[in-house]
Amino acid sequence: MRDIREVGIGVVGLGSMGRIHAGLAAATRGARLVAVADVNEAAAQTAGDEFGVPHFLSGGELLKVSGVDAVIIATPAETHADILVAAASAGNHILCEKPLDCRLDHIDEALSDVAAAKVHLQVGFNRRFDRNFLAVKEEVDASRVGDIISIHIVSRDPLLPEPPRTIGDMSGLFFDTTVHDFDMLRFLTGSEIVIVDVQAASAVHRQAEIDTAVILVRMANGVIGTIDNGQAAHGYDQRVEVFGTKGAISMGNEIVSTTSFVDQSGSHRPGPPYFYPQRYGESYARQMESFLGCIRDGVAPLLSGADGRAASVAALAAQRSVDEGRPVRTSEIR
């Protein structure tokens, strides 16, 4: 593997998430944004003009550009595995947004190609880099709560005009939102998910797509997890509680500011940040720095392809639980 001091980065997919990555690649020391790509020509050209780099209409075109050492994949979930294969074949390191894909055979093919190419793959579970989740993890690892009995995660988007989009015949809620929570359960417990049991509905939008779910999870080490997903009128709701034999630790919402106002009607304070760009901006920066460090130092990423696969397996189990109305073992997912 050649020595890289300034990592040339190409970003494929220029929705809100891709724009965050492009901005960080352009601004982070040790990185250089080389090119951007999106099937939407207006999005590609706008980003190219803003950052002063060439723009393309496909990942395949971007992969041919000289100076690209690493590719960030922020396209729709169903395209991830195919771009992963192409990027690995081109010898590029990869930061892939979650999920790796919603088709297990495509994930396994992509991971095989990444291993054969001997490139780094980091999966975009940015919450592992958030200072609040990291503080909870440090307390857990220091045995402050004793043996973990249960973990409760609340992960609700702000109230949006539409429910999560479907990905083929899969629920976008499970693959765009709950995958983060499945990964966090694995991160905090150091154990694997073995059973997923879901109750779900379109409780907010009253449409065909699921927008609300409560998920019961059994970990291999016996920990019971509950995940509460949905959309909240009061903003981006991100909380966690770890309950153990010695005590409990909880993480509440960030707030926009610490100001407060009191009048005859009561006490008022700002609510949580509106959505993930505001809430998790710092974690995305730390994620980028970690990815660059892995490339420069030739060390394995903190979040591997195996982590991405495990979260996708749990999401597939959640989908099957809804479809068949029963608890599903992750060992059933093939």
Summarize the structure.
The protein has 334 residues and is an alpha/beta fold. It has helices at 16-27, 41-51, 59-62, 80-89, 104-117, 131-141, 172-189, 276-279, 281-297, 305-324; strands at 7-12, 31-37, 55-56, 70-73, 93-97, 121-124, 148-158, 193-201, 212-219, 224-232, 237-244, 248-251, 261-263, 266-268, 328-329. Helix 4 (80-89) links the parallel strand 4 (70-73) and strand 5.
Keywords:
Dihydrodipicolinate Reductase, domain 2, globular, 25% strand, 2 domains, seven-stranded mixed beta sheet, 15 strands, 334 residues, Rossmann fold, six-stranded parallel beta sheet
Report on this model:
The protein is an alpha/beta fold and 334 residues long. The protein folds into two domains: 7-119, NAD(P)-binding Rossmann-like Domain (Rossmann fold), CATH 3.40.50.720; 128-279 and 312-332, Dihydrodipicolinate Reductase, domain 2. It has ten helices and 15 strands. The protein has helices at residues 16-27, 41-51, 59-62, 80-89, 104-117, 131-141, 172-189, 276-279, 281-297, 305-324; strands at 7-12, 31-37, 55-56, 70-73, 93-97, 121-124, 148-158, 193-201, 212-219, 224-232, 237-244, 248-251, 261-263, 266-268, 328-329. Strands 12-11-7-10-9-8-15 form a seven-stranded mixed β-sheet, covered by helices on one side. A six-stranded parallel β-sheet has the order 3-2-1-4-5-6, with helices on both faces. Helix 5 runs antiparallel to helix 10 (305-324). The protein starts with 6 loop residues before the first strand and ends in a 5-residue tail after the last strand. 46% of the residues are buried. The model has no long low-confidence stretch (mean pLDDT 96).
